[in-house]
């Protein structure tokens, strides 16, 4: 039976096969280890919430909403797909994340790594 996989707008889909059981490699990358530890500890969800809050506080979310509405208005409501909107807006969104938000996130990740003694 085929499994239905929901894809996230923000993250690539999770592979069906656990990367730790993959025959092509014997070891996890450092990034994979950090991600596993973040998820297991619940810190990843805390970081996601922090980023969401900071993006709202900075006005970034409103800017992205406006950019989406302008694109839809320009192209016509019936001529825009969600996939097209994501493709057009994502580069602008990534480029416009405030440096302070990025710095705070990196600081929190660094502190987590230090405290987890990875």
From TrEMBL:
Major subcellular site: nucleus
Keyword terms, alphabetized: Activator, Chromatin regulator, mRNA transport, Nucleus, Protein transport, Transcription, Transcription regulation, Translocation, Transport
Region (Disordered): 1-25
Pfam families membership: EnY2 (PF10163)
Source organism superkingdom: Eukaryota
Subcellular location: Nucleus, Nucleoplasm
Entry similarity comment: Belongs to the ENY2 family.
Cited function: Involved in mRNA export coupled transcription activation by association with both the TREX-2 and the SAGA complexes. The transcription regulatory histone acetylation (HAT) complex SAGA is a multiprotein complex that activates transcription by remodeling chromatin and mediating histone acetylation and deubiquitination. Within the SAGA complex, participates to a subcomplex that specifically deubiquitinates histones. The SAGA complex is recruited to specific gene promoters by activators, where it is required for transcription.
PANTHER family per record: ENHANCER OF YELLOW 2 TRANSCRIPTION FACTOR
Subunit structure: Component of the nuclear pore complex (NPC)-associated TREX-2 complex (transcription and export complex 2). Component of the SAGA transcription coactivator-HAT complex. Within the SAGA complex, participates to a subcomplex of SAGA called the DUB module (deubiquitination module).
Protein name in the entry: Transcription and mRNA export factor ENY2
Species lineage: Eukaryota, Viridiplantae, Streptophyta, Embryophyta, Tracheophyta
């Amino acid at each position: 039976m085929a499994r239905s996989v929901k894809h996230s707008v923000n993250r690539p889909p999770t592979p069906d096969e656990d990367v730790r059981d993959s025959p092509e490699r014997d070891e996890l990358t450092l990034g994979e280890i950090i991600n596993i530890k973040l998820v297991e500890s619940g810190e990843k969800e805390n970081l996601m919430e922090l980023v969401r809050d900071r993006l709202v506080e900075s006005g970034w979310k409103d800017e992205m909403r406006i950019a989406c509405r302008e694109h839809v208005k320009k192209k016509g409501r019936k001529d825009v797909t969600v996939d097209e909107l994501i493709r057009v807006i994502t580069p602008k969104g990534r480029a416009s994340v405030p440096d302070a938000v990025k710095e705070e996130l990196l600081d929190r990740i660094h502190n987590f790594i230090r405290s987890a003694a990875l």
